[in-house]
Amino acid sequence: MSNTFPAASGHWHNRYLLMRHGHSLANQQGLIISTPEHGLAGFGLSSRGREQLDGLLSDWCWAIPARILHSDFRRTTETAARIAQHFGLRFEADTRLRERHFGALEGEGDYRYAEVWARDARDPAHRHAGVEAVAEVAARMTELIADLEQHHAGETILLVSHGDPLQILLTALEGRELSQHRERDPLAPASVTVL
């Protein structure tokens, strides 16, 4: 499996806004919640996350999206729903935007992310403890962008996902080694990054 992806050509058919979900109950409790079993029905936005979105929407400084795609986890669905309601838009789940699966670390304290990221830096194809490989996350995320580029043009598209997948996507689109995805500044909850 390749360790790098081609850099973006510089010409996009669409404009992309990448958004990390608002502060969630998983963030609040310091837990790794990465499986559909736990993430679809539970661990939605915290009160802090809802406040973050209220502030973001009142100060929205980006193009208004024509389309909103989101991970089907509760925290990302609630984030997308609040934005869609604000702008009077529909929103659609896409499982390629899901959280990175952290395998046997599911439900553990979020301090355990550090050991996975240390392994990522040595080998982005590793699946230690059943963790989804960085290269696999990059493949599904870049596949989504490629599909959108093929089927849409001239749109502003908001993609609501999770911290790790978005950082991996950005690293892949920059053409950098996927092992370097944690060298980027972490994406804050409810932050928006323009491609």
Give a description of the structure.
With 195 residues, the chain is of the alpha/beta class. The protein has one domain (15-194): Phosphoglycerate mutase-like (Rossmann fold), CATH 3.40.50.1240. It is 38% helix and 11% strand. It is built from seven helices and five strands; from the N terminus they run βαααβαβααβαβ. It has a five-stranded mixed beta sheet with strand order 3-2-4-1-5. α6 (134-151) packs across α7 (163-173). This is Histidine phosphatase family protein. One of its GO terms (molecular function) is hydrolase activity. Its EC number is 3.1.3.-. It comes from Halomonas rhizosphaerae.
Question: How do the helices and strands line up, and which of them pair or pack?
Answer:
Elements: E1 15-20, H1 25-29, H2 36-39, H3 47-58, E2 67-70, H4 74-87, E3 91-93, H5 113-122, H6 134-151, E4 156-161, H7 163-173, E5 192-194
Parallel strand pairs: 1-4, 2-3, 2-4
Antiparallel strand pairs: 1-5
Keywords: Hydrolase
GO molecular function: hydrolase activity
EC number: 3.1.3.-
